[in-house]
Design goal:
- The chain has 692 residues and is of the alpha+beta class.
- It is 45% helix and 14% strand.
- The chain binds zinc ion.
């Protein structure tokens, strides 16, 4: 599970690299010079459409021991090799479109000042960003602003070997096939459709073959499930389900199976990583992952996940594989993603304090006793520095990750939870001085509060969400973990967010010494309400509903507490000079309401109350106030901000002596967005254009 980017929206608190709870302070007087963000580090890289590209610094990398640097290097290579897999998972024409556009872009000889060319460049940048033709967040297809005629002309002008035609297909037929996929809003309109109809037939992702229906998918996997199995595998996680001769069959993603050329490369780099593993436990983790990639066996995947979650001592860590299921409306198939990271030791202390007190939080949470865990197990938490992003974590990346996802592994072995602090820092630094606070916050009081405590409370909220929120509570014994169906992601994210919000205002945090003052929580509360009631709407197109689970969750929470607190005027909308603002009048009461909602959301989850989940999502999470939405969009346009941000990776380079012995791994931060994307498409692109 991911905590995606809350701070990106409101990221306007200004914190120097030394702030944020003091975790960056160089506490021990070591002789190695602290490797912190240089004062002149430039975060901003590029901006286009609704996107801004940033760069992140990797503090501490230079001071890692050589073997760990090597490990980071090999894992980073493994993190890049799966990029094509994600493109193909997102839509079966994505690789064809990306390759065609890249061909045109790099071979173009015409006038670069014409609008068709410029729009092609923007479109290509968006395709790179979204790993395909659908918006990475809104899931809808975005349309190019260059003409069909220009496109056809440019394709015809390409050297024949650069047009990715299907076998036996002419260039003309290729153009005929691909044009509606790019230009027609109605063709493959949505990557993931959550809003009615046959969710599988109407989703443009490539997890299911042509003609496969939602009912067929559900019947297929229900028949496979053994409901008495207390440690079930994640059925269907790593395959495409297709119909062959009228019969459903899984095409497994593995060496020798679907996506084999890319997976072989991933395995190649993982084998290198295995050789320089820090310890035998980590070696075992990598070896199990390799064996899973080779066999596609989901039992092996679970063994790997258990080994991974139990490896808490290694400094370097990673995610690499078919992981999150947000891209499948039924939550069965996982998209490929990767991160490489290492522990931020100082900041981890803060998360560890939270973790070691997990039982206290569980005991004091406002939910019904029947839904609480008697013993909270293995809530490990750490703050990490990310060194490489890949697949579904690139270029748009979460700020926190909590894995594994299998319920029984979480129950029996706990989960590993991370906050990615260097990414949060980059958001925060880049978000300063945008005028966002002036435009949307009610007064100086809120602005000042957020400047002062915005970053630390945001980080803490993420810690609480990831370290405690997702791991808290339990299902009643007879409840099916999938009982909430298509509403489960929204409910689960709401649960974790509410847990964090509720405890952020608890004196316990002051007692534990991790929050500077008892009032600091108000900064996050204000931001959360303003975001959930209003400003997150900048991410939605006019007339559209909210679809994405994290956004639904935030509006659900904000609208619910707004409505329940209406009689006492806890939160209100105020209008000044024709502009709407969110005002919080009673922070204490707001906290109580967060607690009430947490109790209800936990009940829904614990009892598997599908109807209540459906109702609460329908009533609070989805619908958008059209008038307010328009106002927010208009006001946002006046700011120099983009609603979504993503990152380029640093570049690693092996330094070898004359005998070929590795003596260092260099890191650099100079590569641009286009440069990086073209390089990845050249060096890490092994899949055929069509993967059937
Ligand atoms: Zn989450």
């Amino acid at each position: 599970m991911k905590k995606s980017v809350l701070i990106a929206m409101t990221g306007l608190s200004i914190m120097c690299a030394g702030c944020g709870g003091g975790q960056k302070a160089n506490t021990s007087a070591k002789q190695t010079e602290a490797d912190t963000v240089p004062a002149d580090f430039k975060y901003e890289v590029d901006a286009f459409a609704d996107l801004e590209i940033l760069r992140y610094y990797v503090p501490g990398f230079k001071n890692l021991p050589l073997e760990q640097k090597e490990l980071v290097y090999y894992l980073s290579m493994a993190a890049l090799e799966g990029r094509d897999i994600l493109f193909d998972q997102n839509n079966r024409y994505n690789l064809a479109i990306r390759r065609t556009l890249e061909g045109i872009y790099t071979n173009y000889k015409g006038d670069k000042s014409i609008s068709d060319y410029k729009e092609l460049e923007v479109y290509l940048k968006r395709v790179w960003f979204s790993n395909g033709i659908h918006h990475h967040y809104g899931e809808e297809k975005f349309l190019p602003a260059f003409s069909k005629e220009f496109f056809a002309e440019q394709v015809k002008a390409l050297p024949a070997d650069l047009v990715p035609v299907k076998e036996g297909q002419s260039v003309e037929d290729f153009i005929k096939m691909i044009t509606p996929v790019i230009f027609d809003a109605k063709v493959m309109a949505k990557k993931v459709n959550q809003s009615g109809g046959d969710l599988i037939m109407t989703s443009a992702n490539n997890y299911y073959g042509e003609g496969v229906t939602q009912k067929e998918v559900q019947d297929f996997y229900n028949a496979m499930k053994d409901t008495t199995d207390l440690t079930p595998i994640s059925y269907g996680l790593n395959s495409r389900l297709v119909k062959e001769n009228g019969k459903l069959t899984e095409k497994v993603w593995k060496v020798g199976g679907l996506y084999s050329p890319a997976i072989e490369k991933i395995v190649f780099w993982l084998e290198k990583a295995e050789e320089v593993a820090e310890n035998s436990q980590q070696k075992d983790v990598i070896s199990k992952l390799i064996s899973y990639y080779k066999t596609g066996d989901l039992k092996t995947f679970d063994q790997y996940a258990v080994a991974w979650v139990e490896d808490l001592n290694s400094q370097v860590d990673f995610v690499n594989g078919f992981t999150e299921v947000y891209g499948d409306p039924l939550g069965i198939k996982a998209s490929w993603e990767a991160t490489v990271n290492f522990k931020n030791v100082e900041a981890t202390k803060r998360a560890e304090i939270i973790s070691t007190n997990a039982q206290w939080f569980e005991d004091h949470s406002p939910v019904d006793k029947r839904f609480k865990k008697e013993t909270v197990k293995g809530v490990s938490a750490k703050v990490i520095t990310v060194a490489q992003l890949g697949g579904d974590c690139y270029p748009a990346t979460p700020i926190g990750i909590n894995l594994p996802n299998a319920d029984w592994i979480r129950r029996d072995h706990g989960s590993k939870s991370v906050t990615i602090e260097n990414i949060m820092e980059a958001y925060d630094a880049a978000g300063a001085h945008t005028g966002f606070g002036k435009e949307f916050m009610w007064s100086n009081v809120e602005e000042e509060m957020i400047k002062k405590y915005g970053f630390i409370t945001d980080v803490l909220h993420t810690d609480l969400h990831e370290c405690l929120g997702h791991g808290s509570g339990k299902l009643l014994p007879e409840v099916d973990p999938n009982a909430l169906g298509e509403f489960s992601s929204t409910i689960e994210e709401a649960r974790a967010d509410l847990f964090g919000l509720y405890f952020l205002a608890d004196n316990k945090l002051v007692e534990l010494g991790i929050i500077p003052t008892a009032d600091a929580y108000k900064a996050e509360y204000y931001k959360f309400m303003m975001n959930g009631l209003m400003t997150q709407l900048v991410r939605i197109e006019p007339g559209k509903d909210i679809e994405e689970a994290h956004m639904r969750n935030r509006q659900l929470i904000a609208k619910w507490v707004y409505e329940k607190g209406k009689a006492e005027n806890v939160v209100e909308y105020k209008v000044r000079d024709g502009k709407t603002y969110v005002v919080v009048n009673d922070y204490d009461k707001l906290r109580t309401l967060f607690g009430d909602l947490l109790a209800e959301i936990q009940r829904i989850k614990s009892e598997g109350d599908f109807k209540a989940a459906k109702d609460i999502v329908a009533n609070y999470a989805v619908k958008v106030d059209q008038k307010l939405h328009k106002e927010v969009l208009d006001r946002y346009k006046t700011l120099i901000m983009k609603p979504y941000k993503g990152f380029v990776n640093p570049v690693f380079e092996l330094v070898q002596d004359n005998d070929g012995k590795i003596t260092d791994v260099k890191i650099s931060y100079t590569e641009g967005y286009t440069e990086q994307m073209l390089r990845y498409s050249k060096d890490y692109s092994t899949l055929p254009t069509y993967n059937d």
